[in-house]
């Protein structure tokens, strides 16, 4: 059961020495590499008729971490969640929860017999029960006093001490979510699943609830798997992110690693705005439309690639476009400008034909058709892909 | 492995549980369908030659023509009444529109046989009008019996179907389309004809088909009005022990019903082009036409509501010894009998509807769909056909049950179980699937989840369904007449008996009770629909 530990991490040595985000204090995830595996999927697949929703997915989640399944809609992330909960049965592969095989191709443990809690996308609070009754619903073994105690504990944890007597329709969206969280946490599940937890909240509440949910999960010390299509949400709350596409796992790793060193063009394009510079490799380095880079700047590029063409991943905040007066100077031309309030994003068509975006401060005003010299302003290593 | 295979895991643990539920639903559906199916088989059994002879006999042809005439006339009359009234109440500045809308829909709550009974007792040979005119030397008045009386009464009590469907179509109509037509050089009338009418036509047609179906299957009115149509003749043949003929007429009537249902389902299938959005609501100013419009509404309301209710009230107060003569005195125990059988029918129908309604809401397999549809057969079939099929079937296979309460109640269940299936199904559909999944992940078995989450949430809908079955059973005429044990009197059999003997006055109390019961059932339907919208 523990064999997945080393094989599931495709980028074991890729961790950079940058500090973790503010959302991920050192204590919880710092031990992630050595903590026990709580959940392990091995080649799990799910087919609906001719359609393959999840395709040979292998993944493991360690105790105390929050892993987010991220991908566009229809990528199989919600189905994966339902497989873990026991609400769907895999057509192939195995699922192991806390060292117990809960599903393979011949049997499947019922959801009520797995120690898994879910926060549903629409919260799924029981409308005919009060908040307290909702939270107590999963406490099937405890006696009355113990149940009351636990319900009070959870109400305090989610900050709804005075709302116990209300019914779900008397609560705001954020409060409903807290109740859903409390209800799922009440039976102390081995694993908590969150299905698009913030999608039913309005934008401002969403950001606040992210922090709040993160706080509650940490206070409860629970291992969690969440699902979202919102990359900002995934990157900001997760200890690790697993990017799914078309039922397959594209990449899994710490948010900054996945963001900065995407292993595929799909991941690069899905996380943030990606641009690609076509470049040719020789012994001197990589030559692109905005200048040359040393081979060492490229993540994992070796001299073996000399003489070939590659595409270098660049993001808008890595690039600056400086206006040039002379029509013959510079390396491109502004073809589109978008004002977002906090910044200007200029689309530049380089003389080589590549189209890239440059993000500027909102006070920098470059007009359309202006000749510019685009330069690279960041100092991190760059991801690249063999030319298509 | 999931046996559902469609990703909607519901009762995963109990493949057995689900299989059992499916078998149960199948058995219930079969029981509901069996008598009618058997009737059809028997009718074909009588041999093609004798069947053909019967079919082409002058009397059968006459019955068919009569039925067709009645359906055509009532449908046309309902459209002529219903559409103008709908336009007046939905789209003009008629004073007190809400008041008129309610009053004009209200005739639907008067069971048509009570309406017929009231009209006969008012305008019939021994009725009120004749009594009033006799001292004046008027010997005879135009007869209320026959085609004209049947058409008049049925039209007055079923036109609200057209009124309501047309109103709904008019109300969902987008005002900006009219404005567009006006700016494109059309007069208001031109716009109405070219823009509004084509788009509300499906609504009118839907109402007209309901009217047609109702007219074809109505037993009470033509019987009271002595007009020979299928329903009346099936009953007559049955009483004259002409069972083969009754069976054949039943099958013929079923065939016609199915044909109308077929048209209806096709019509409602392409109902989906309703173009919503934009501004709703536009109002035609009536001007001086307001007065004729008010007079029209008043006349309709007077005929549909004031006449029957007035006549019944009059009998109630006139009472007198003359009306309770002949051993026809009304006893409240008849009412109690009605309540008891209706309550039992409601109970049985509700319990039997649970597995069928639950399955059809929660799974979509060909089998569950089939079972769901099968339970609707008794509802679509005319009551007299259901009653006759059960008698026929009962005499042959269940002689011990013939003319007993269990068979009567079974007949009611066959007839009205769809009301319970429908309400159960729609309440189950309103229980979000994720609620059950939440209950499962919180450690509850499928059965416990059903008990603690689904059942409390569907309870109001299930109770409403039971109430509906109860109320419609109370007023069911043909099945009661055919299946009631001899000597067992209910409100309905009593009304039938006294109107047959001409002791109209005696029926006032039970008739008013049935109007009230009918009104209550309408209220239940309306509150149910309100729930659905919410």
UniProtKB/TrEMBL annotation, chain B:
The chain crosses the membrane at residues 21-41, 61-87, 99-124, 144-164, 246-263, 293-316, 336-356, 376-395, 453-474, 503-526. Coiled coil: none annotated. SUPFAM superfamilies: MetI-like (SSF161098). One of its GO terms (biological process) is transmembrane transport. The keyword Cell membrane applies. Keywords: Cell inner membrane, Cell membrane, Membrane, Transmembrane, Transmembrane helix, Transport. InterPro entries: MetI-like (IPR000515), MetI-like_sf (IPR035906). The keyword Mitochondrion does not apply. It comes from the Archaea. It is found in: Cell inner membrane; Cell membrane. GO terms for cellular component: plasma membrane. It is a multi-pass membrane protein. Residues 64-262, 335-525 form the ABC transmembrane type-1 domain. It holds the Pfam family BPD_transp_1. PANTHER family: FE(3+)-TRANSPORT SYSTEM PERMEASE PROTEIN FBPB 2, INNER MEMBRANE ABC TRANSPORTER PERMEASE PROTEIN YDCV. Belongs to the binding-protein-dependent transport system permease family. This is Iron ABC transporter permease.
């Amino acid at each position: 059961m523990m064999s997945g530990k080393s094989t599931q991490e495709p980028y074991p040595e890729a961790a950079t020495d940058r500090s973790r985000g503010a959302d991920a204090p050192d204590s919880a995830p710092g031990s992630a590499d050595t903590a026990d595996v709580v959940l392990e999927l091995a080649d799990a697949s799910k087919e609906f008729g001719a359609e393959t929703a999840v395709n040979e997915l292998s993944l493991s989640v360690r105790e105390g971490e929050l892993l987010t399944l991220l991908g566009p809609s229809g990528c199989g992330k919600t189905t994966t969640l339902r497989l873990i909960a026991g609400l769907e049965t895999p057509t192939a592969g195995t699922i192991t929860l806390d060292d117990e095989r809960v599903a393979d191709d011949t049997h499947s443990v019922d959801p009520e017999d797995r120690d898994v809690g879910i926060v549903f996308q629409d919260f799924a609070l029981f409308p005919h029960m009060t908040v307290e009754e909702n939270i107590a619903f999963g406490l099937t073994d405890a006696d009355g006093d113990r149940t009351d105690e636990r319900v009070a504990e959870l109400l305090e944890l989610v900050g709804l001490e005075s709302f116990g007597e209300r019914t779900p329709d008397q609560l705001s969206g954020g409060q409903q979510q807290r109740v859903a969280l409390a209800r799922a946490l009440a039976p102390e599940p081995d694993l908590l699943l969150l299905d698009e937890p913030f999608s039913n909240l309005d934008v401002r509440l969403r950001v606040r609830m992210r922090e709040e949910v993160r706080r509650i999960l940490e206070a409860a010390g629970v291992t969690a798997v969440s699902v979202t299509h919102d990359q900002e949400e995934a990157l900001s709350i997760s200890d690790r992110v697993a990017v799914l596409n078309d039922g397959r796992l594209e990449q899994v790793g710490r948010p900054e690693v996945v963001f900065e060193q995407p292993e595929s063009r799909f991941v690069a394009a899905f996380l943030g705005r990606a641009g690609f510079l076509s470049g040719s490799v020789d012994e001197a380095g990589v030559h692109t439309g905005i200048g040359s880079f040393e081979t060492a700047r490229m993540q994992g590029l070796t001299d073996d690639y000399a003489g070939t063409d590659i595409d270098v991943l660049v993001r808008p905040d890595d690039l600056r476009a400086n206006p040039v007066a002379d029509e013959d100077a510079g390396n491109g031309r502004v073809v589109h400008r978008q004002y977002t309030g906090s910044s200007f994003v200029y689309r530049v068509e380089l003389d080589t034909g590549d189209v890239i975006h440059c993000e500027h401060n909102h006070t920098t005003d470059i007009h359309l058709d202006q000749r510019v010299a685009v330069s690279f302003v960041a100092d991190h290593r760059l991801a690249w892909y063999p030319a298509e | 492995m999931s046996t559902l295979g469609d990703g909607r895991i519901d009762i995963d643990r109990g493949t057995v549980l689900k299989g059992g539920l499916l078998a149960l639903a199948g058995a219930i559906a079969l029981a509901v369908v069996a008598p009618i199916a058997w009737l059809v088989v028997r009718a074909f059994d009588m041999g093609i030659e004798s069947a053909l002879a019967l079919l082409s006999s002058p009397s059968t042809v006459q019955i068919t023509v009569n039925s067709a005439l009645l359906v055509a006339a009532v449908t046309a009359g309902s459209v002529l009444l219903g559409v103008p009234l709908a336009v007046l109440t939905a789209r003009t500045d008629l004073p007190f529109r809400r008041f008129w809308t309610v009053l004009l829909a209200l005739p639907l709550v008067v069971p048509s046989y009570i309406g017929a009974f009231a009209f006969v007792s008012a305008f019939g040979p021994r009725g009120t009008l004749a009594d009033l005119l006799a001292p004046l030397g008027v010997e005879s008045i135009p007869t209320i019996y026959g085609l004209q009386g049947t058409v008049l009464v049925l039209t007055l009590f079923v036109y609200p179907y057209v009124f309501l469907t047309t109103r709904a179509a008019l109300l969902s109509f987008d005002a900006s389309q009219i404005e567009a037509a006006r700016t494109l050089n059309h007069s208001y009338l031109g716009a109405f004809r070219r823009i509004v009418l084509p788009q509300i036509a499906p609504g009118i047609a839907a109402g007209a088909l309901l009217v047609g179906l109702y007219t074809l299957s109505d037993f009470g009115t033509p019987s009271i009005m002595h007009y020979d149509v299928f329903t009346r003749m099936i009953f007559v043949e049955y009483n004259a022990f002409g069972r083969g003929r009754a069976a054949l007429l039943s099958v013929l009537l079923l065939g016609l019903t199915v044909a109308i249902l077929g048209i209806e389902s096709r019509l409602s299938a392409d109902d989906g082009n309703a173009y919503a959005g934009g501004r709703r609501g536009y109002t035609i100013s009536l001007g001086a036409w307001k007065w004729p419009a008010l007079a029209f509404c008043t006349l309709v309301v007077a005929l549909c509501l004031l006449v029957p209710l007035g006549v019944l009230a009059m009998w109630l107060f006139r009472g007198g010894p003359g009306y309770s003569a002949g051993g026809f005195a009304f006893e409240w125990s008849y009412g109690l009998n009605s309540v008891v059988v209706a309550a039992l029918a409601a109970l049985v129908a509700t319990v039997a509807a649970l597995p069928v309604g639950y399955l059809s809401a929660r799974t979509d397999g060909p089998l569950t769909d089939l079972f769901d549809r099968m339970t609707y057969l008794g509802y679509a079939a005319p009551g007299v056909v259901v009653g006759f099929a059960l008698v026929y079937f009962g005499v042959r296979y269940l002689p011990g049950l013939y003319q007993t309460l269990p068979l009567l109640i079974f007949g009611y269940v066959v007839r009205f179980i769809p009301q319970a299936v429908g309400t159960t199904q729609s309440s189950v559909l309103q229980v979000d699937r994720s609620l059950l999944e939440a209950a499962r992940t919180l450690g509850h078995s499928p059965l416990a989840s059903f008990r603690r989450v689904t059942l409390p949430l569907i309870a109001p809908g299930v109770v409403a369904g039971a109430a509906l079955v109860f109320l419609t059973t109370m007023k069911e005429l043909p099945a009661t007449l055919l299946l009631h044990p001899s000597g067992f009197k209910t409100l309905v059999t009593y009304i039938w008996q006294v109107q047959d003997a001409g002791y109209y006055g005696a029926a006032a109390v039970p008739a008013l009770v049935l109007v009230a019961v009918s009104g209550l059932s309408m209220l239940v339907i309306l509150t149910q629909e309100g729930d659905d919208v919410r």
